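Quick log. Single chain, no ligands specified.
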Amino acid sequence: MLRPLAIRSIDEVYAWEQTRSQGLGVEVDHPTPGRIELPGPRLRFGGAPPREHAAPPLPGEHDDTVPAWLDERDA
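-> predicted structure:
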């Protein structure tokens, strides 16, 4: 019989040493709040280059580029 274990909050997960040692959180610079921590890559395959992480966009930052990308994709 398996015994139930504690369920960690998201803050506890990112403070957990195992999460840190596996690189499952990444820090990025954001223009408004400054340095923030985001979830890192879920899967990593041997030999694959690490993926660049960026801060979330500001409101309106992609107002021109997203519709243009959608038009290209639908063409």
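The first strand starts at residue 25 and ends at 30.
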